[in-house]
Amino acid sequence: MSELGHVAAPFGKLERTLAWRYLRAKREHGGASLISIISFVGIFFAVAALIITMSVMSGFRATLLDALLGGQPHVYGVVASYSEEEADALAAKIRTVNGVTSVTPYIEEYVLISANGRKTGAAVRAIRNQDLATLPFLKDGGQAAIDAGFGVGRNGGDVIMLGAFLAAGREGLGVRPGDKVDIVTAQQTAGPMGGTPRSKSYVVGDVFKTGSVELDSLYVFMPMDQAQILFQSKDHYQMLDIRLKDPDKTHEAMAGIASVTGNALYTFDWKSQRQAYLNALQVERSMVRLLVMVIMAIATLNIIVGVVMLVKNKSRDIAILRTIGLGRGGVLRVFLLVGTVLGTMGAALGVVVGVLVVTNIGVVEDFLNLFVPGKVFDPDVYGLEGLPAILDWAEVTRTGLYALFMSMGVSIIPAWWASRQDPVSALRFE
């Protein structure tokens, strides 16, 4: 008796065996219908799609932020009204703030740059040689540019660095290291015929990539001494480039900077500059997640139809089980297990395939390139060396659990209906 009680326990051996037998039975024997298979496949594709989509979006977000934060300060400090000596003293105080990794002065002005008959706008950023190592996207610390003469010679020399897309992009200047470019500024030089814009020719010493098409199409790096002369800013900087260990903690850093400088410095952070980007990324991410979750919910709804058809096929079996002592709760749990197993198997396979695709995204991209002209993600267009993807295990876990709970939830409806069937009526018509 105790053995029978154990077998018939809630979700015990009897109920698990019945559920598994119904799932394995062939269609002609009243087993799971084609609808059940479709629901399994739908859940599988939805789970895999959600994992792949969210991983790729996370990769794009991380790549974009790395590019933006690599090519621009985390916190800006305005020092245009201070002399070099005063600005350097402020920079020394800021370096003592917890979380600050580097503080470098710079000047930034917009100019017209031309070469090979092409003209475009650009932003010249003046930087000292010793500060090149603080720029994370310069893998060699700017040594290639220094070797080419960047910052070397009288007044810093005439060697500059150009962003990759500004130098050789589709709408760039078509120049390489060693070529010359002309820069025209808004500052004017007085002459007998009135003021004329200041201009000078420079040699391209090196080409850099921040990873952002926007920045690589815009920036020119120039030695500080040369820029101070060109922009008539001798003995003055314009801004302080303040980099943090954690770029998200800008408010804490600005509070610390205000404390050590006695509120003598106006600061603002990268978030205020890029708030539109951040909001767009967050909205896009949320909407894509919601869309795929709705698709997954629709896929799990097919379980209702599949289990209902299974109940119809097994109505005689249900009646017999009820007459030999299986209660309504037992019948409910049997068909609840059927729906849950369908959802769990679909979710598990979706998780496995999704993780495999994300961890082998380079192979997948190469495969897709076989079927499209050119490349799926052309580096010259997107500024990406490959399709970025970051596997977020928390996202994977949430996706799997969502599919599991949705499968259990929708299975309750047909399972409850099966448990309410009258065994006498079922046997009479069978």
From TrEMBL:
Transmembrane feature ranges: 31-57, 290-311, 332-358, 400-418
Chain ranges of the ABC3 transporter permease C-terminal domain: 291-423
Major location (coarse): membrane
A single Gene Ontology CC term: plasma membrane protein complex
Similarity remark: Belongs to the ABC-4 integral membrane protein family. LolC/E subfamily.
PANTHER family attached to this UniProt entry: LIPOPROTEIN-RELEASING SYSTEM TRANSMEMBRANE PROTEIN LOLE
Name the record gives this protein: LolC/E family lipoprotein releasing system, transmembrane protein
Protein species of origin: Hyphomonas johnsonii MHS-2
